[in-house]
Amino acid sequence: MIAGRKRVLDVLVWVGIGIVFLVVLFPPFMLFLTSIKTNVDALKYPPVWIFRPVASNYREIFRLIPFGHYLFNSLIVALVSTFIALSVGSLAAYGLARFRFKRSKDLSFWILSIRMTPPVAAAIPIFIIMRTLHLLDTYLALILAYCTFNIPFSVWLLRGFFQEIPREIEESAMVDGCSPFAAFWKISIPLIAPGIAATGIFTFIFSWNEFLFALILTGSRAQTVPVALTGFIRETGIMWSHMAAAGVLAMVPMVVFTALVQKNLVKGLTMGAIK
Amino acid sequence: MFKKKKWAPFFFIAPAVIILLLLVIFPLVYSLGVSFTNWNIVRGGKWKFVGLGNYAYIFLKDPYFRTSLKVTLIYVISVVALETILGLIVAMLLNRPMRKIGLLRTALVLPTTMTPVVVGIIWRLLYNPELGTLNYFLELFGFQPLNWLGDPSTALPSVIVADVWEWTPFMALILLAGLQSLPHDPFEAALVDGASSFQIFRYVTFPLLLPTLIVAVLLRTMDAFKTFDLIFVLTKGGPGMSTEVLSYYTYRYGFKFFHIGRASAYSYVLLIIVIAITQLLLRFIREGEER
């Protein structure tokens, strides 16, 4: 009797899990489907489910707009911003994890609170400053803007990784005559290499996905993929199949990266606030 | 050993602090100054100091501020409430020994790490009244098709649904991690005492999970206040003011009307709201850290 009820419950749970994954995966599946339809098929109603798939949309987006250029821009900006966030961030994270000084805790929370600033509040002054410095529509403007959220994130996440290594390891190195920086560089950094990789992937994802700064700070030259995607929405209508193809291309690297960090996913998404 | 060299902490921390001072604090102080002026960049460089004029306008005269604040609050409260409840249900469903959990987790988190603009595009496609799949299903089951994003009464709920789709997995993942780190003993004791599943949830799981739940809710609340991409792609604040959240309204003031002075004041109002919530969050995290 009890075993029977348990089996019913089990079936219900699996049905529930099935529904969850259906709901999660159906929308992106529709995007993919639209991306391999011809424009004629994409605009049919009721939607056609059986059709001849085409790859032409993926080719055409590189011809219709300089999509390759936008991909390159996104890549450069995300890579450089990630590099800065990791180098500056790992130093600060180590300093905050290892040294106790007056107000070190307040400093940690100050850095964390920067990450909480609504981007639109920072966007207005950053726009004016970049305009004054004639940096609008350059990589530098975006890279600097992305540092505002990537540095606090990497400090906070890397601090957690540094705290996990026992400080005795570094102390013994320093007893042997290592300077604090040498202990940091030769001992601690190699030990948290996986943490640095995970942090880097997260900052890359954030930079790749960022929209507001990219929208206001760039024009045609430094435009990134998310802004370029909205370019398919035109007064005359939306180029659905092309936009879908570009959307799939923007999404694929993030799916791969997410799979890579999935062990550290919760830690990263919450900046280590929940263990 | 770590205390001897006094310069060491500054050497490590200074670069980050200097960059953040230049990139965040200086601009924010600058825009606080700008928020006391009537600077409009299309009128050229001319501006006048107006004191608290912009703030007085926002709170006393602006007919749209209250509407936007109301839309924002409805939006934030709805998405956080729905995402918490659904996230908890999903986390409970997945909280069992499973092979391939990594693969499932990657699939589940797809909406959360997907480029937000792409999320907007996907939902615009689904909601489209002429070719959208949602109306197709509605008609299939005998309902009237809806003009989801085009009708002021359904636009906000439609954007909320998209946000719930995007962020429920985030909530579920955090709560799942929380569930999996709970100690076993209280559950065994409850089972021995013959507690029902509901009683176990109500008196054991829920109280133990509460700290995680609070942090997750606060993180999500702060993010929900910032929602911009989804609104930009789905509705641009319309139709009318029906989806005009504060972050979008501020953006419009700054980058459509170029009224930088007033936009800065708006951004400070938004900033203060978010800081108030952040303080709450930090207090919870700090208490958690000290334990």
From TrEMBL, chain A:
Residue ranges crossing the lipid bilayer per the database entry: 12-36, 70-97, 109-133, 139-162, 183-205, 240-261
Chief localisation class: membrane
Membrane topology field: Multi-pass membrane protein
Subcellular location: Cell membrane
Pfam families: BPD_transp_1
Keyword Transmembrane helix: yes
Keyword annotations from UniProtKB, A to Z: Cell membrane, Membrane, Transmembrane, Transmembrane helix, Transport
ABC transmembrane type-1 domain mapped to chain residues: 71-261
UniProt keyword S-adenosyl-L-methionine present: no
Family indicated by similarity: Belongs to the binding-protein-dependent transport system permease family.
Protein name per the record: Carbohydrate ABC transporter permease
Taxonomic source organism: Thermatribacter velox
Species lineage: Bacteria, Pseudomonadati, Atribacterota, Atribacteria, Atribacterales
UniProtKB/TrEMBL annotation, chain B:
Keyword Methyltransferase: no
Domain ABC transmembrane type-1 positions: 69-281
Chief site of localization: membrane
Pfam family, one: BPD_transp_1
InterPro entries according to UniProt: MalF_N, MetI-like, MetI-like_sf
Localization of this protein: Cell membrane
Keyword Transmembrane helix: yes
Domain of life: Bacteria
Alphabetized UniProt keyword annotations: Cell membrane, Membrane, Transmembrane, Transmembrane helix, Transport
Gene3D superfamilies xref list: MalF N-terminal region-like, MetI-like
Similarity comment text for this entry: Belongs to the binding-protein-dependent transport system permease family.
Protein name: Sugar ABC transporter permease
